[in-house]
Amino acid sequence: MTSRTATARYQGFGKEGKGQLDTQSGVLDATPYSFNTRFGDEKGTNPEELVAAAHAGCFTMALSFALARAGFTDGSLETTAAVKLDPDGDGGFAITRSDLKLVAEVPGISPEQFEKLARGAEANCPVSKLLKAEIGLEFELR
């Protein structure tokens, strides 16, 4: 079983608060996030952007492996994920949709075979499954 971690820290609350994100790999290291990186133009990241990156990367890798299992060895895949954040009616927000847009070059594949493999990758990549998953929460209040 593989486990990966990320840590979020936030100082202050609401629109005035500022946060930092770190990932186990170190690719995010004190990366800023805040209300202004989420809804404004301040430099930094935000949760929706990270979900979009994770979904695009996961789907593309899943399709790459499906194509390799089907005997294809050459080509390219480029996926853009657009995550939609909408008000949830309770004063908060919810990710209501993740749209994947794929541009692919796979010499020798039929459109029907490609569609079958792409749809299978979309349904079965771990992030697609996560977006439909039950969420667990453990917390400690100090």
Please describe what this structure looks like:
This protein is of the alpha+beta class. It has helices at 35-39, 47-69, 111-124, 126-130; strands at residues 6-11, 18-23, 31-34, 76-87, 93-105. It has a 3-stranded antiparallel β-sheet. It has 2 domains: 1-45, no CATH class; 46-132, K homology (KH) domain (GMP Synthetase, Chain A, domain 3, 2-Layer Sandwich), CATH 3.30.300. 33% of the residues lie in helices and 29% in strands. It is built from 4 helices and 5 strands, in the order βββααββαα. A hairpin with a 7-residue loop joins strand 2 and strand 3.
Low-pLDDT residue intervals, each spanning 5 or more residues? none
Mean pLDDT: 91
Number of domains: 2
**Which architecture of the largest domain would the CATH scheme give at its second level?**
2-Layer Sandwich
Order of the strands making up the biggest sheet? 1-2-3
Question: How many DSSP helices?
Answer: 4
Structural class assignment: alpha+beta
CATH topology of the largest domain: GMP Synthetase, Chain A, domain 3
Rg on CA atoms, Å: 18 Å
**Beta-strand fraction estimate:** 25-35%
According to CATH, what is the class of the largest domain? Alpha Beta
What's the helical proportion of residues?
Answer: 25-40%
The tally of strands reads 5
The CATH homologous superfamily of the largest domain is termed: K homology (KH) domain
Please provide the ordered H/E string of secondary-structure elements: EEEHHEEHH
* Largest beta-sheet characterization: 3 strands, antiparallel
